[in-house]
Amino acid sequence: ASCSNGTMQRIRECNGPSYGGSECRGEWIETRDCFLRECPVEGKWHPWTSWVGCTKTCGGGNQQRQRICYGPFFGGENCPGDREEVRRCNEKRCPEPHEICAEENFSNVVWKMTPAGDTAAVRCPPNANGLILRRCTLDDEGIAYWENPTYMKCISNDYRSIQTLTREHLSKAQRGLVGDGVSEVMTKLRVTSSDGTSYSGDLLAIVDVLKNMTEIFRRAYNSPSNADMRNFVQSVSNLLMEENRERWEEAQLLGPNIKELFRLVEDFVDVYGLRMKDFQDMVEVTDNLVLSIHKRPVAGNADISFPMKGWKGMMDWARSSEDRVTVSKNILSTGKPDADDLSAFVTGIVLYRNLGSILSLQRNSTVLNSKVVSVTIKPTPGSLSTPVEVQFSHLYNGTTNQTCISWDESDSSSLLGSWSARGCRAVPIDSFSTKCVCDRLSTFAILARLNPDMNMDKMQLPSVTLMVGCGVSSLTLLLLIIIYVSVWRYIRSERSVILINFCLSIISSNALILIGQTQTRNKVICTLVAAFLHFFFLSSFCWVLTEAWQSYMAVTGRLRNRIIRKRFLCLGWGLPALVVAISVGFTKAKGYGTVNYCWLSLEGGLLYAFVGPAAAVVLGVAVELLCGSASPRPHLDVCCPGHHRPTLRHRHGALHPAQRGTSFFTLLSL
Questions:
Q1: Is 201 within 8 Å of 250 (Cβ atoms)?
Q2: How many CB atoms lie within 10 A of CB 219?
Q3: Domain limits of the chain?
Q4: What class is the 260-457 domain?
Q5: Cα–Cα nearest to 653, from 621, 627, 631, 625
């Protein structure tokens, strides 16, 4: 070797032997180890480090990275190349002061200075995980401003926990394991989602959970029960609650489109329908949708109609709906399924109550003029020999050019996104309904054109008749109060106090009616308007009851007790406040305000919280007036002799017919 460790050798030769001598003794070669010097080692580069931060945030800076040379040793060559590398960075133009969003405290969050085009991020509140994002952008004049923060990345802790549990069950199902507690997760999701959502990220978490649950149910050893089906549909309905509309709009900007919801329901219909043991029909009705699943033999002998007659448990909105769907038996018997099970078809029909308000399809001159209906058949027929017929009831009167639209993701040329007018034709039935005849399975709706003088914002304004009626009523009652106040010292009595309070309750009701017509899009204000309307309407009835009570007490001569006078106020204002408080407590304010009006919802029985007490008041007034009419006992009257103050004197006789007529006509006006 020329370096490092090696060996050395030496040899010797044996001369002879001669004349009978002996052979040479010992080895003829000898070897030993040797070491000349260390071998030279060439230098070798270590990997590059990461690029360090840029020296400038804008306007062109530098950033560098380094690498270390290992060696050389014992006279070896150095590493070839440079030890450092420099490159330019952040060459974009530095923003001017007016192109930077200033630090701002918004929604209890401090947002640091951010240049236009960048997005700031802060942690979600303690009850959620993730980040709140807020973008700084430029307006038309080049001035930077903060956009509204988005909470798409924020998921409440409750939904995060359900999401984690579902993913664990899905992981087990994918490995062929049966996981206990799947139904409990569905129940927990239904209960949690019924309490509402806090962030748009919660909606996306619910969709993710439902998608994973569908995949779990798709496994043969995790068939969904009837309770799972109800919990699933109710969870979808909770997604579509009116208070989630703004969060849906935010979720659609950056997250999955509404198509995720359509696919989710379609997949669930496929999974649940194939798990149905016999040929049967299933229906689930919620506050926001109706889902019907029909499992029929291929050689069926009857059309599928929606809604079916005789269904029980239909809510008022679904029972009164005039939307109809007809799926011909020929579609099932002549279709070519793409699945192995040729013995049955599963048809799913979904009627969405308020999905149109979430879709926001309104343009300058068009509006979604119907509810939304989805029709799906599994296994999917190769083609439809008979079209699907969907009859829609119009949501708005006075519209023209009714057009049937369907969801078609393949139609990229449509001006409505994934909504297309192809494959359906509209058949007018009358001015209030239109039938869509479609040669494809999809999600359908009606799009209509607004009249030039018809504007959605104007449609929310109170009608002229309503404004004139409420205005005249309020002005007349206000004039009456002014007159009473001006001569109060001459007419002061319990009856006058009752009349003034009654007038105030009616005036307040009129004002709230006019305000409530324009606040349907603001959930909080609409709920408050509905609750106060409930209170003031009940107060009006209660003050009529109080007036009848006062008249009865006057007839019977029991009006001298001051305790009774205080009870008038408790009955007129206290009883309505108690009824409203109990109603709000039991319903958690659900049912106060709807999509179309700020009043008690017709669903869920909340309206009886008004009808019941009002009917009781009418009955009480009738009883008191009848008792007062029949009683011949002395009662109090007011007289004003000369210039003296009013004095009370007794007068025998029953309640005057004019007083009875006043009370009855008051009830009739209410």
A1: no
A2: 17
A3: 1-89, 97-146, 260-457, 460-669
A4: mainly beta
A5: 631
DSSP helix/strand/coil, 153: coil
C-alpha–C-alpha distance, residues 527 and 538, integer Å = 17
Q: Which residue has the tokens 């099970």?
A: 341
Nearest to 186 by CA among 152, 154, 225, 160: 225
Residue type present at position 209: V
Q: Which band of pLDDT confidence, cut at 50, 70 and 90, is reported for residue 27?
A: confident
- 359 and 370 in contact (C-beta within 8 Å)? no
Q: Of 114-128, 485-499, 545-559, which range is least confident? A: 545-559
pTM comes to 0.65
State the maximum Cα–Cα separation within the chain, in Å, rounded to a whole number: 187
**pLDDT tens-place string over residues 336-364:** 444 444 578 889 999 998 887 777 655 56
pLDDT surpasses 50 at 642: no
Pair 544, 501: CB distance under 8 Å: no
Same topology for domains 260-457 and 460-669, yes or no?
no
* Residue 319 contacts residue 370 (beta carbons within 8 Å): no
Looking at domain 1-89, its CATH class is mainly beta
Measuring CA to CA, which residue among 151, 256, 271 is closest to residue 207?
256
pLDDT at position 464 is 77
Q: 149: helix, coil or strand?
A: coil
Confidence of residue 368 (pLDDT cuts 50, 70, 90): confident
CA distance 553 to 560: 9
d(CA 493, CA 506): 20
Q: What is the pLDDT of residue 644?
A: 45
Question: Which is more confident, 114 or 456?
Answer: 114
Cβ of 160: how many Cβ atoms within 10 Å? 17
Residue 231's contacts (CB-CB under 8 Å, 6 or more residues apart) are 183, 186, 187, 189, 190
End-to-end Cα spacing for the chain: 118
pLDDT tier at 639, thresholds 50, 70, 90 = very low
Please identify, in words, the CATH class of the domain defined by 97-146: few secondary structures
Residue that the structure tokens 């408790």 belong to: 570
Q: How far is Cα 125 from Cα 103, in angstroms, rounded to an integer?
A: 19
Structure tokens at 598: 């700020």
Asked if residue 69 has pLDDT above 60, the reply is: yes
Q: Which has the closest alpha carbon to 285: 660, 603, 618?
A: 603
**What does the DSSP assignment read for 459-514?**
HTSPPHHHHHHHHHHHHHHHHHHHHHHHTHHHH-SHHHHHHHHHHHHHHHHHHHHH
Q: Are strands 44-45 and 69-70 parallel, antiparallel or unpaired?
A: antiparallel
Question: In this structure, what token pair is assigned to residue 165?
Answer: 């549990």
Per residue, what are the HEC states of 233-293? HHHHHHHCCHHHHHHHHHHHHHCCCCHHHHHHHHHHHHHHHHHCCCCCEEEEECCCEEEEE
Query: Is residue 305 helix, strand or coil?
Result: strand
Q: Of 27-41, 298-312, 552-566, where does mean pLDDT reach its minimum?
A: 552-566
Which H/E stretch holds residue 137?
A: strand 131-138
137 within 8 A of 119, measured Cβ to Cβ: no
User: If you classify domain 460-669 with CATH, what class do you get?
Assistant: mainly alpha
Q: Considering Cα of 471, then 472, then 478, then 481, what sign does the dihedral take? A: negative
Distances in whole angstroms, Cα of residue 144 to Cα of each of 100, 139, 349: 6, 6, 48
From CA 660, how far away is CA 316, in angstroms rounded? 38
Tokens of residue 133, six digits: 């994002």
Which pLDDT score, from 0 to 100, does residue 646 have?
Answer: 44
